[in-house]
Design a protein that fits this description.
Blueprint lengths: L1 H8 L26 H8 L42
Length: about 80
């Protein structure tokens, strides 16, 4: 992924942060379970977004990230170090 970013932007991404230390959890017992469809009303309350076909996020009132001025190219107006893919 980093090579693709560099190839398309000409900018080398910053170094990756160090891996966080891993800690063992020990044994974990699964003592309860529920079918997903039975719990859906709890996990995602409300009516949802019914549609016969998938819609773009803008159709549901979600917006894309703001862009720079027209013709400024991809990533214009983003903070330094942030790369638009």
């Amino acid at each position: 992924m980093r090579a693709v970013i560099e190839a398309h932007t000409g900018t080398t991404p910053p170094p990756l942060p160090p891996q966080p230390p891993a800690a063992p959890y020990g044994r974990v017992a699964l003592i309860q379970s529920v079918p997903l469809l039975s719990a859906l009303h709890v996990l995602a309350p409300g009516d949802g977004a019914p549609a016969r076909t998938p819609e773009r996020m803008e159709a549901y009132g979600q917006r894309r990230a703001p862009r720079g001025p027209a013709g400024a190219g991809r990533g214009a107006g983003l903070p330094p170090g942030i790369v638009a893919l």
